[in-house]
Design goal:
The chain folds into two domains: about 30 residues; about 130 residues, Immunoglobulin-like (Sandwich). Helices cover about 15% and strands about 40% of the residues. It is globular and about 40 Å long. By secondary structure, the chain is an alpha/beta fold. The protein is built from one helix and ten strands; from the N terminus they run H-E-E-E-E-E-E-E-E-E-E.
């Protein structure tokens, strides 16, 4: 009988240690790997008031935007369906992203409903939380990842 009590106490001790390790690992934040290669924002290259219709495009790549107000902005990135490459966008939890799709243009530059030579992929991004937020988009073929794809990254600091 004494052996069973010691065995149960030992199992209880091991279970408690494992639970503490799991809780500690969760608090340290081993999870969010998608932004690990993006540098931490240091200073604002541009301050933007998120009022009205603010559009951000590829000229903001690798920059830090600062804003004093919560709001929304539109991100537009060029895309070409004929090459098979598409933007895959991720954002930190403080941003809500709504994919608006792609607007296509024909050879003459006129809008068309059919995928054309040129397209502009558009996302509406709502700022939900203050602090440092990040956006990362990779231009890739869905079926093939080489590691040399074009990357768009943007830091958004909401004060």
């Amino acid at each position: 009988m004494a052996g069973r009590i010691q065995q149960k106490s030992g199992m209880m001790m091991i279970s408690t240690i494992l639970l503490m390790i799991l809780i500690t690992a969760g608090c340290v934040g081993f999870g969010d790997e998608k932004f690990k290669d993006m540098p931490a924002p240091t200073e604002c290259q541009k301050t933007v008031a998120l009022e009205g219709n603010v559009t951000i495009n590829e000229t903001y790549n690798n920059s830090t935007l600062c804003t004093n107000a919560e709001g929304a902005f539109t991100l537009q990135l060029n895309e070409n369906s004929r090459t098979g490459y598409q933007w895959q966008l991720t954002a930190s939890n403080g941003l809500l992203v709504v994919d608006e799709g792609v607007s296509w243009y024909d050879e003459t530059g006129l809008p068309t409903r059919m995928p054309g030579i040129k397209g502009i992929h558009e996302w509406k991004i709502f700022v939900k939380e203050s602090g440092a937020q990040k956006i990362k988009a990779i231009l890739q073929r869905p079926e093939r990842v080489t590691g040399s794809e074009s990357v768009f990254s943007l830091n958004v600091i909401v004060k």
